[in-house]
Each structure stands twice: as C-alpha cells, then as structure tokens.
Amino acid sequence: MKVNLKRLLANEGTIDLIHSLADNKDFAILDAKGKPLYVSNNLSPEIISGMVIKANQTEIGRVCSNSGKAADTIARFIAYLAKLEYEKKALASETLEKYKEISLMAGLNEKLASVLHPLDVANTLIRELEKTLWADHIQIVIYNYDKERYENLAIMNKHPQPFQEGEQLAVKWLSLNMVGEIINDLAGDERFSDYFPQVSSLMTAPLIVNNSVIGGVFIFSRQFHSYTSMDLKLLNALVSQTATALEAARLYELLKDTFIRTVFTLVETLEKRDPYTGGHTKRVMEYSVKIAQTLNFSKDETEEIMLAAVLHDIGKIGICDKVLLKNTKLTDEEFTIIKNHTIYGEEILSNINSLRHLIPGVKDHHERFDGTGYPNGKKAEEIHFHARVIAVADAFDAMTSDRPYRKKMALETAIEELKLNAGRQFDPEIVEAFCQMLADSNLNGVNGQFPPCRTSTHHSPPQYGC
C-alpha cells in the first residue's frame, strides 16, 4: 500500500500549512525520483540537498531548503500527513476485507440453513470457496466414527485425474494440526512433498466442533500461488462456520436413520402377527424406492416414499386377528372390515407430528386410477403420487407372494397383470417405470428378461393388494 505524495500535497490547505512552518524560508518538495512537486517563489539557486520524507519506512520524497531547520520541520510534517493517509488507507482496506468476509459468511450461512445432508453442506462450502479463492482442487475429508478413520466427503477437481494421495495427506496433517496452514512451496516442505509432486501450493483448515477435529478442508494449486494470511483468515472463517452445520447435518442424518430403523422395527414386529405377510413391508419399500429412483425423484422425496411404504399397512393394527389372519378367501363383509385399515392408518399417523406428511401415501394406496378404489373413490391425479407408487409395489408383492388361500403367481404373470391393469387400477406411468426398473435390475430373480412395458386398458382383472 503506497502513499501518493503529489496527491497528498494537492489536499486543500496543505501547502499553506507548510509555508507557515517554513518560517519564510524558501523550499522545494521533490518526489522519490527527484522530480519537483512544489517550489516556493524565491527559491535560491544555491539551495542545498534536504531531508528525506518517509512513509511506512519507505522514501516517498525529499524537502530541500537553504535552511536545514525548515527542511527538517517540513519533512517531519509531511511524513506525519503521510502516516495519517497510510493509516486511513489501511483502515479502509481492512474495513473492505471485513465487509467481504461478513458478506461471504452471511451468504454461506443463508445457503447452509437450507441443506440438511452432510454432502450438500460440503458442496455448498466448495462452491463458495471456488468463487473466493484460487484452487485447482478442493478436498473435504471427515472423520467416520463407525470406521474410525478420515474419509473423503466431497471433492472439486478441475483436472481429469483426482489427487489420489489426498486422503493420506489429510490423515497425516489432521493428526498434527488444529490450526489452518499455508504451504506455498510444497516441494520444499519435507512433511508433504512426497505426497504431491504435481502440486506447488496448498492451504488447509481444520473442521473443529467442541474442540475436536472432525475433518479438514484442503485447497491445492498445481502452479505456484502465493496464498496470503488474509486468504487463510477467510478460509478459516468459512470452514469454522461450515463445521457446525456439517456436524448438525451428521446428527440429523443419525437421528433420521435411528427414527427410520425404529419405525421399520415397529412395523416388522406388527407384521409377525401374520406369518404369510412376513417381509411384505420390506419388499414394498424396496420396490417403491426403486420406482422413485427410476423416475428420478429427489433424495428427500424418495425418503418420503420409503417411509410411507414402510407404514402403508400400519392401520392393520386395528383389524381383528379373526379377519386379518383368516386363511381362506375373505367374504364381502370381511373385506369391508379390511378396507378400514387405510382409515386407521390415517388416524394413527395424524397423532404423530413428524409422520403426518406421510398420510396421503398411506391412506390412498388402495385408491384406483379409474376411481373405483377405497376409501374415498379418488381417481387419476386426485390420488397422491406417492400412493400411486406404493399401489404398484404393494400389488406386485401381493401377487408374487404365497397367501393361505392361493399360491403366488409367476413373475411373468404378475408383470402382465400390472400391464393389463394400467389405467384402471394403476397409474400407467408408474407401471411403465416399474417394468423398466425390473428390466434393468436383478430383483427377486428377474434378470433383465422382460421387454419394456406396453400397457393396456382393455382388461379388468381382480384388485390385488389389500
């Protein structure tokens, strides 16, 4: 940061003040190269060399006068003005950098508030770092508590080949540090030079939560890049902010996983009432998730369908064993009782805040696409999309499983029934996706032997799934 002497002298009133300090002595002010910037009117030709003017230990000019005292006084005064100007510029620069840092942190905080998955948190940080700091490669590692080791969480790499040695470097560095670090000359650093012969400079910062290192962020440059203390300060600020969000996301994932396992265990326990439906919930869940993935649902929506599929028959807890466990075909009266399980499911979930959003998928999974299903006779788009997915998964598993009153269908026959019922019992789009999923996977022995689905609406076989 430099002070411009010419601009300093041009400030209003500066020359007048200097004249008052000169005590009527002639003087000249020169820049650092000896070029005159100001010469008083009556300067004597015999003027002697004067005093150096310094700003921040750097010569910015000279004051010449036939009076050594006047030259010294003027030089000191101008040096004082230069110091004030330098401090003003430094303060402005620091304020600008602080504003930049606060703006970045505020923007990052806003973005982090909308993400809940650890990978999304990491990628959000990477996108901010790409816009802020020079990097060929950014790598975020995190400690895996189950495996008791550091692992890659997210990577940004501008070159085709990723830096394979990054994880080893991370482990070594994280075992030694709880502070950020700049290594601009990596080849000259004995600790890490063997890891990255193709990297010239790097910068690192630890992810710290409650005084414990949970991971780290590594920024690499193939060409020499002089990372500065301001770069490291900014990196540490962003990484520190992300560490809290990352740990919160991990805890959220852990709680969510525990919650899902608890729900699934509860449903499996209830399922043991009927030995003939053992594993039904798990299979319906797997089919539903695969359909969602085939249709490119988001991760959140796929998880929602998964939970709804797990709970789709939760209302059967309210059906008496006499009807639920009957080993012969149900009478019309008994079937009417069974149909109440969708209503019971709605009543159960309505009492649990965290599960209420699953009610449409659970309640509507026996509605038919043509409007002849239950409990409300909804049709087509009136039926929640999640319920339409579960309906296909539920019916397919029912058809391909043994029941007390009938043997399971062959897979080819069950698939044909789905096709024939598309547009009547089932959403044709879901049937199409299910057929495609079966053709692309090795599910329940189906190994790509079925052609793409062609649905038909000219047949109305019995309703499957109950």
From TrEMBL:
PROSITE patterns attached to this UniProt entry: HD, HD_GYP
Protein name: HD-GYP domain-containing protein
Source superkingdom: Bacteria
SUPFAM superfamilies membership: GAF domain-like, HD-domain/PDEase-like
Domain HD, residue spans: 277-399
UniProt xrefs under PANTHER family: CYCLIC DI-GMP PHOSPHODIESTERASE PA4108, CYCLIC DI-GMP PHOSPHODIESTERASE PA4108-RELATED
Native species: Desulfosporosinus youngiae DSM 17734
Residue span, HD-GYP domain: 255-450
Entries under Pfam families matching the protein: GAF_3, HD_5
